[in-house]
Amino acid sequence: MRRREALLIIAGVMIMHTPLSVQASMPAPDLLPIGQLRLDKEPSEEAGQVSGNSAEESGGGDDAETVQDVLNEDAIGSGAILISDKTAEDYELAYERAKNANWGYTNLGIADVSDNLNIRAIAAEDGRLVGKLPRNAACEVVDTDGTWAHIQSGSVEGYVSLEYLLTGVPAKFKAEELATTVARVTTDGLNVRAEANTESEVITLVAQGEELEVAAVEGDWVKVLLDDDEVFVSAEYVEVSAQLSTAVTMSELLYGQGISDVRVDICQYAKEFIGNPYVWGGTSLTKGADCSGFVMSVFKKYGVKLPRNSRAQANSGTTIKVSEAKPGDLIFYAKGKTINHVAIYIGNGQVVHASSPKTGIKISNVTYRSPFKAVRVLYD
Questions:
Q1: CATH number of 108-178
Q2: In the 8-state DSSP scheme, what is residue 6?
Q3: Does the predicted TM-score (pTM) go above 0.70?
Q4: For position 115, what pLDDT does the model report?
Q5: Nearest partner of 255 among 341, 344, 322, 342, judged by Cα
């Protein structure tokens, strides 16, 4: 009896010390013993046996890249993490690539409103306004509590109602519809030409740092939309990237001292329609207007009758220097010597205007293209 017991004990010890062979067809364990965590750079043969979980296998198709996609599509789970062959640098790179695949956001949010979403200093309805997130504008969702979202967008940080914010997959799908390819000007006074050659007419100049909507890249030239005109700039002097619109700060919505109430009212009224559509020939502030239709309809509310097109509007009122413009004055732009666009100056070096079918009614720097002239139609 004692001999039998001894044999059983010896057999048990041998079994415990015998390495188990894990077949490739078997799933990886959820938990592994301490000591099997590997962070070596080169994957071992055993690590290669862990099955992947690629976007193609899961039906992900062309969805935006995630951290998992970047990390060679390894399975994500406690077991996979413990036997990972990735270094800290690999995970940092994966994070950055996933971020870039989401237009610069790691937790993307899109304003799902008809006009503007208020951004407040605290998570409360009576919180101080610190900015506005226009319709379809993007933000980084820092945190949520089920009712409010803590966000960052452009230079604005604050809280918005989670009810009016798309997040997760719906936000990603919406962003794919909204992303605009822009050319950021990298030189001061970039020539904008009618055709893609240096012999072509210079239509206007664009200041360094301004962004132009890209229609196409054609070799050494980039076709851009200057409001609703297709023109060309040299690819050498721009950086092309895909972007989403961001929040507007309160400083962009306020004015300096000494401005009459009617001028403030006109500018505030005009900005209520930011994000609404551009429609060629339109005059509706809600359903769609072109540049001159937008200006005409805004001023009509305040008893100022203006002609229908921008060239005629430029001959109304009194011509002033652009440097003398006050909020409520009109700024005109030209294609060559022919006026083809009008905007309302709102102070702080900015204008509000119906720009193009892609961007609709928006705020721009007054020098987003070279101003041609300024006109005063308000006398106060």
A1: 2.30.30.40
A2: H
A3: no
A4: 81
A5: 344
